[in-house]
């Protein structure tokens, strides 16, 4: 009788089950559901510091008239559109190369490429700042081999500062994505490649027609993860530009703007919450779009 | 054994009770004042000195000076105030003058008013003004950011200038000299961080204006001082007499390495300039150049900060008494921190001590402290308002446009638009 109840709808009424998950549910409610709902409520309030009052949709209206927000949004989307495809493609190519069993020193290369994403954020930002300084190793190398005649203003020119941020995040996160691809590649049945080789399919076609389609679920996963990561980009920009998002707000991201609104500027927790919800909405929309593009079409 | 224990038990219990109540009494008597501030060689060291002086006469009060980076102090303070949990906050905190009104206005009731206790008439008026809200004065004025022009005598001499030539400069003359210095010595005139609004603030305040008017409304498009300042900075950039710097330490490096001929900064930079013993005797200090507009002076301010007592502090009374005893009255203390740390306090009575009249051999025997305190009294008082950080970012965002031939009025409009979007 008791056993029979477990499988059906009856198990939802089993008090013992609920007791087991109650502590976890309680903690989730307290530390996740409550803050989320509270921040949503906050995004409809405005004011200085603790002097908050209900403002309706004023914060959302303010978004459209706030040139700094629009600048931060444009910058963030630029990073997203430029950096994510470069990184995904690079990670795919690297993973295919390192999957080759005849490659000498595979383990070394895999470790070397994965290493950046376990290094300290601050350490690597400081290192990048030194490397890309006007008289740093990058500029002196470029000058020595004659690619540029005068040092590139990596940190003081709007365009180059943005480029530097893209270089920095690509360096850090490519290896992370590559590991997912390597794992997925090792699950692909080798006989598929053998058949293709026997049929005379060239290497590049094997990559585009076999590897990429079979990796599609993993590519979708890494793209969504990278989208979330890029839209939340903060540490690199904060450390490379001393927290300012300069020059000329050229590297300012939405997350850095939220930080500024909360800790650097006159604190406006309501407006900062609204900007955070912009990120939430963007991530949701982009994830849905990516799932839609990668859907399995009926044959 | 059993009997023995039974016989001793009441005594043991009594002893335990006695020691517990003894501990409770000492805990009630000993007061520890926790202080948050930044800069171990300046604010932290000075506060420890002040604490040591107070403990001599008040042995029951001890001090816990906590050293954070400035941004961390501000972030922790703002988070603590917003969360409403006073336990996490210190008893005394250091706040930079530009941010004082922001904290006072956005966290009402968070700081203890000191109006009845401290005699504010003895302090530089502009320091008191930034900590006044609705007729109440909060905080204890501390160090001044009175500005000066530090210059390399040797580079200027090689370029054909005498120390007299550096007195009463205008900014246009400063740029002319800079061009000559570069032609003769190959050195740049000044280090400039295009992401830092410090130079703009110094020059603008010297002409008695700020990003905001006396009512705190944005004062950008009609601000003659800001316009002249931006034109000046634009000329410095176009004349290419500056060494670009990225960030604070990079900027400090421009003059400690001997790459530039001048530094425009608050008096607190003195310690950093003097940190290069091999440059002793090569430096001089003069008043900063003036703009060629009405109301222009040679006196200004950069930075500077003050001590604030948290209203929620359990040691509020002791903290206020401590600040008043040492920072409000102790002239000898000000002499000591001036000599040891190069701190120019804003207590006007402290300006008549022996230390202020001493000649400094690093600056070739000039009486630099006397000079700085004379300039301090002349700093134009402005309303820093509550949005200085926002305005600063709006201004630095437009600095690159200055060299691209964009008319200054257009730049002012762009700055105004950005600030208007930020202050709501």
In a nutshell, what does this entry contain?
Chain B: InterPro entries: Bact_solute-bd_prot1 (IPR050490), SBP (IPR006059). The complex is a heterodimer of chains A (299) and B (424). Chain A is an all-alpha fold.
Percent range of helical residues of chain A: 55-70%
Could you tell me how far the N terminus lies from the C terminus of chain A, measured between alpha carbons in angstroms?
Answer: 47 Å
Strand order of the largest sheet of chain A: 1-2
Instruction: Using the alpha-carbon principal axes, give the shape of chain A.
Output: flat
Largest sheet of chain B: 5 strands, mixed
The count of β-strands of chain A is: 2
Secondary-structure-derived class of chain B: alpha/beta
The percent range for strand residues of chain A is: under 5%
Give the SSE string of chain A.
HHEEHHHHHHHHHHHH
Helix content of chain B: 40-55%
Note the total helix count of chain A. Answer: 14
What's the order of the H and E elements of chain B?
HEHEHEHHEEEEHHEHHEHEHEEHHHHHH
Structure, described:
- Chain B: This is Extracellular solute-binding protein.
- Chain B: It comes from Sinorhizobium garamanticum.
- Chain B: Belongs to the bacterial solute-binding protein 1 family.
- Chain B: Its main location: periplasm.
- Chain A is 70% helix and 3% strand.
- Chain A has a two-stranded antiparallel ribbon.
- Chain A is flat, with a radius of gyration of 24 Å.
- Chain B is an alpha/beta fold and 424 residues long.
- In chain B, helix 2 links the parallel strand 1 and strand 2.
- In chain B, helix 8 crosses helix 9 and helix 16 packs antiparallel against helix 17.
- Chains A and B meet through helix 4 and helix 13 of A and helix 3, helix 4, helix 16 and helix 17 of B.
């Amino acid at each position: 009788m008791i056993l029979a109840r477990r499988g059906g709808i009856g198990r939802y009424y089993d008090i013992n089950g609920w007791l087991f998950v109650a502590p976890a549910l309680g903690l989730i409610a307290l530390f996740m559901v409550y803050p989320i709902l509270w921040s949503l409520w906050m995004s409809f309030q405005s004011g200085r510091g603790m002097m908050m009052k209900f403002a309706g949709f004023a914060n959302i209206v303010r978004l459209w008239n706030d040139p700094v927000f629009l600048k931060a949004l444009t910058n963030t989307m630029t990073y997203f559109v430029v950096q994510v495809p470069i990184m995904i493609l690079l990670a795919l190519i690297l993973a295919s190369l390192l999957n080759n069993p005849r490659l000498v020193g595979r383990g070394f290369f895999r470790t070397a490429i994965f290493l950046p994403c376990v290094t300290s954020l601050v350490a690597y930002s400081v290192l990048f700042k030194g490397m890309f300084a006007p008289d740093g190793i990058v500029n002196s190398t470029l000058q020595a081999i004659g690619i540029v005649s005068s040092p590139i203003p990596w940190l003081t020119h709007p365009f180059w500062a943005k480029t530097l941020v893209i270089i920095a995040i690509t360096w850090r996160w490519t290896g992370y994505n590559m590991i997912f691809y390597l794992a997925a590649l090792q699950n692909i049945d080798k006989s598929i490649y053998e058949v293709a080789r026997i049929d005379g399919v060239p290497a590049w076609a094997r990559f585009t027609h076999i590897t990429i389609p079979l990796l599609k679920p993993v590519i979708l996963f890494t793209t969504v993860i990278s989208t979330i990561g890029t839209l939340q980009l903060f540490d690199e920009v904060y450390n490379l530009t001393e927290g300012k998002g300069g020059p000329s707000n050229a590297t300012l991201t939405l997350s850095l703007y939220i930080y500024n609104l909360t800790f650097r500027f006159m604190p406006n927790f309501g407006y900062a919450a609204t900007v955070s919800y912009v990120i939430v909405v963007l991530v949701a929309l982009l994830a849905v779009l990516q799932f839609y593009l990668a859907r399995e079409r009926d044959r | 054994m059993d009997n023995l224990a039974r016989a001793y038990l009441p005594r043991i219990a009594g002893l335990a009770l006695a020691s517990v109540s003894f501990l409770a009494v000492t805990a009630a008597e000993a007061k520890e004042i926790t202080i948050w501030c930044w800069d171990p060689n300046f604010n932290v060291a000075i506060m420890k000195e002040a604490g040591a002086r107070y403990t001599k006469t008040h042995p029951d009060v001890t001090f816990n000076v906590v050293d954070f980076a400035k941004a961390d102090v501000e972030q922790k303070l703002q988070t603590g105030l917003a969360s409403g949990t006073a336990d996490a906050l210190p008893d005394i905190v250091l706040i930079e003058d530009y941010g004082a009104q922001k904290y006072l206005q956005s966290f009402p009731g968070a700081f203890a008013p000191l109006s009845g206790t401290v005699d504010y008439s003895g302090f530089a008026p502009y320091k008191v003004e930034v900590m006044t809200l609705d007729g109440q004065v909060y905080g204890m004025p501390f160090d001044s950011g009175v500005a000066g022009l530090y210059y390399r005598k040797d580079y200027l001499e090689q370029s054909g200038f005498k120390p007299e030539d550096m007195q009463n400069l205008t900014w246009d003359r400063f740029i002319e000299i800079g061009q000559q210095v570069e032609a003769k010595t190959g050195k740049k005139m000044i280090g400039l961080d295009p992401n830092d609004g410090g130079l703009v603030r110094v020059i603008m305040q010297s002409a008695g204006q700020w990003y905001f008017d006396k009512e705190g409304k944005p004062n950008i498009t009609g601000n003659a001082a800001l316009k002249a300042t931006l034109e000046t900075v634009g000329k410095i950039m176009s004349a290419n007499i500056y060494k670009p710097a990225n960030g604070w330490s990079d900027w400090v490096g421009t003059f400690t390495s001997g790459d530039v001929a001048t530094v425009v900064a608050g008096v607190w930079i003195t310690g950093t300039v003097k940190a290069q013993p091999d440059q002793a005797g090569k430096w001089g200090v003069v008043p900063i150049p003036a703009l060629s507009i009405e109301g222009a002076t040679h006196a200004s301010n950069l930075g500077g900060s003050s001590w604030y007592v948290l209203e929620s502090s359990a040691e509020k009374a002791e903290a206020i008494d401590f600040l008043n005893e040492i920072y409000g009255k102790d002239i000898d203390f000000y002499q000591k921190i001036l000599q040891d740390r190069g701190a120019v306090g804003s207590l006007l009575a402290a300006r008549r001590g022996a230390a202020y009249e001493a000649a400094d051999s690093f600056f070739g025997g000039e009486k630099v402290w006397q000079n700085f305190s004379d300039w301090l009294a002349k700093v134009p008082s402005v309303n820093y308002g509550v949005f200085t950080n926002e305005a600063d970012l709006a201004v630095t965002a437009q600095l690159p446009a200055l060299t691209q031939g964009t008319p200054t009025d257009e730049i002012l409009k762009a700055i105004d638009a950005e600030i208007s979007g930020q202050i709501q």
